[in-house]
Every structure is written in C-alpha cells, then in structure tokens.
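note to self: dont lose this again. the chain is below, predicted strucutre after it. 484 aa total, dont forget to put it in the shared folder this time
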Amino acid sequence: MTDPRRPERAGEPLTGHTTTVHSVAFSPDGRTLASGSSDNTVRLWNMADSRRPAPIGAPLTGHTGPVWSVAFSPDGNMLAAASADSTASLWKVSDPAYPSQVGGPLAGSSGEMYALGFSPDGRTLATGAGDNKVRLWSLPTSDMIGRTGVFRPDGRVLATAALDGRVRLWDVRTPGRPVRMGEPFRPDGGVRSLEFSPDGSTLAVVTGSRALQLWNLRDPERPVPHGSAIPLSIKFADPLAFSPDGQVLATASDDRTIQLWNIGDPARPRPLGAPLTGHKGYVNSLVFSPDGRTLASGSADGTIRLWNAADPGRPTLLRAPLKGHLGAVNALAYSPDGRTLASAGDDNSVRLWDIEDPAGASEQARLTGHTEAVVSLTFSRSGRTLASGGDESTVRLWNVSDPSGATAIGQSMSPHAKTGNFLAFSPNSHMLGVSSGADSIRLWNLDTDEAVRRICSMTRGVLTPDTWREYLPRLSYDAPCAGR
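---
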C-alpha cells in the first residue's frame, strides 16, 4: 500500500480455506501471513512477494471448532490460535515450512476463545473467552525444534534432528534461553539417529539414506562432513554408541548383527573384525560401559547381550543373554559408576541389572508404573536418579541410590504431548531434555531449590494473613517463603 488514501488490490485472493476466514495476521518481518477459519484450520502463506503469495505446507489442524483469532509472537517464532472449541494452540513457526505444535491445547475456559495476544517480550499470552474472563499464560522459552537430540558431553550444546531432516545446534549454557548456533545442516537423506563423540568434536549420524556419516563440529558454527558417508545394511535398526575413548563406534544392521568401527581417523572409518552375531531380533540399543570394556546390546528378541570389548578387534560374548523382559528391549543406559545397567522394554517395565561383574550380571529390580512401552532412559550425572519415558507420553523419575531398593519419585510427569524417544539429562546440570510434541524438544529444570525460588518470587505477598485466615482458619499463620 504505497498510498493509504488509494489502496490497490495486490494480486489475486488467497484460496484454500473451505469456509469463512475470521482472522489474519502478518509475521513481524512481513514474510508470512497466517489465517484462521471456520473450517477449524490455520493456514500459512508465503508473502515474500506480496503480488504472488503462495500457501506454505498443509493447514495446521487440531482444533475442533472455528479458529477465531491468530497472532504471531514479537520475534515471529511462535504462532497462537484461539478457537470456538474453548482452547488455544501454540505453534513453532521459526521455519514456516515445518511448523510444529508446542505442547497441548491451552484449555481452562468455559466459553469459546475469541481473542489472544502476546506480551511485548513474548513470554506471556493473553486469551479472552466467552466466559467473560481474560487468562494469562506463561509460555515456554526453552523449546527447540527437533524430534530427537543429543547433548554434547560437556552439556553446553544440544544437537537436535527435526522432521525437515536437518540438524540444529543449540547453545544451552543458559537453559531457559537456548540460542541456535550457525545454520541448520542436512545429512544426505535426513537423520534417523545421532550421537556425539566423547570429546564433542564429532557427530555421528545414521542418515535417512541408510548410511553412516561423521561430521566435524570443532567449530559448531560451521559443521563439515568428515569424508564420505558409509552405506549401512539397515531398514529399521539405527542405534549408535561411541566408546569412552572415542576411538570405536558401534552400529547395528538389519541382519541382527553389530559392527564395530575404528574411527581414529573420522574421515576414514574402517570395520573392526567380523560383525557380532547372536540376537534373534533387531538391535534397538547399544551402549558402552563407562570404562569401555563392555558393550551392551538390547534387542527386539527381549534379551540383553554383554560383549567383552577390551580388544575391539576381537570382541567376545561375556555370558548368556540377560533375560527378564517380556517383550522387546528398547533402550539401555549405564549408571555413571558402571555398576548398574538399566533397560526399558515393551512390557512397560524398567529393569535394573547389577553389572559390576558383567560375567555374573543379575537383575536387581523391576520398576513398574508406565502403562505403555518404555522407550527411553537416562541417568542423572550423580547416578542417583533415573528418568524413563513411555509411549503413554509420560516421564517418570526413580530414586536409584540403592538400585535393589529403587523407588518412584513423585508422580509421572507429562509434556502434554507425545514424548517421542528423546530423553536425556544434561551432563552438567539439573536440566532434563525431553521430546514435547511432534517436532519440539523442551528443557525441564529439575533443581528443586531453583523451583522454590521461582515460585516464591512470583507469589510473594499473595498468601497474606487475612487470606490465610479465610482459607485455613484452624491453622496458625506460617508465612510461605519466609527467609527466601
């Protein structure tokens, strides 16, 4: 609109919605337009050339009623939509071609949600509903694009792999405000799994084109591949594991075998010895012991095998397979001291194994509580806490200070969306990384002292003596957060 007094139509009307369009909003940079409609969808449009706008991807779905209002966050990375179904939804749109929903619907009103808007700093969303109330929502600031990921061993960087097939590196030294490093890069065919080397300089990737590719990340701002990708005989199996010294990498094949690779020269990986055989089902998980002398493998055949990897050129089976799970073994994790191996299975259980003497390994405990298959495991850096993720979209914490007497810590936690199979404690903090939605990863701070400080800072002065007497008349006043 060069002259506001004489507006001219730019191009042809945008079509795609099947009924009335109620709301439109431009992103702050003007390159994207969002529209909400009575067809219960939100659509995104590329407005880089305003005379030739084009739809971006498929409509955003999930609402069960008309979408009355849409709004972009001030930085343009998030889109909110309000609907007649009495909920609002949040979408990550930093790359509009690959939007992903952030968490579950924002519910709570007893009337249709008609309006919404972001605060200037983007940390709060206001919604207005038909119940005559305005609600304020504190928004997550630590979400990152990705369906899976891996922390660099120093805990300062998180690598995520997203549905667009690209890898993104994030500076997570300030966990509440992760910052993307450099530009995303895309291994050939996308990403199936990824793992950092112990020194953090190399990222191993099993690609969508069924190959192993190693990336040089000495400069995280400028990732470059180490040599050419190596074809793998895989369709389903894609676990990866580095030895603690970073010289050996373990991969699996669809013929139920495991291959060790010498990656002393990352540009020229070479196989070490013959493939390891014995599993009767796909190998779902591989992990080296902290001392590097043992390799554990978990399989769809329901067993765990322990391999002597002291001489990686001639690995041997240490003992008979560990049995106990009543279904596939999906994930394995060693405790930091190497004395305990945790396993997760399709039988909805987590099992702890005394592995101090691998040849005499035995089951210590069976942890139950998940209602569907357990697909992810991670130990805290102290080794006293184990986190498990299930297909019912919950995360559970376990006190494993005494593995034989392990107990649940509190109730299960939910990211309010499908958790996926990414679950990892940061190596140097109380942060827990978890899949939160189809293409979103969130950092949870499990530091209880920090949580208390945050709650007290936000609620100080709310529970006054008068309010206390109104709701707790039989108890003497005890000021919450006193001394904090």
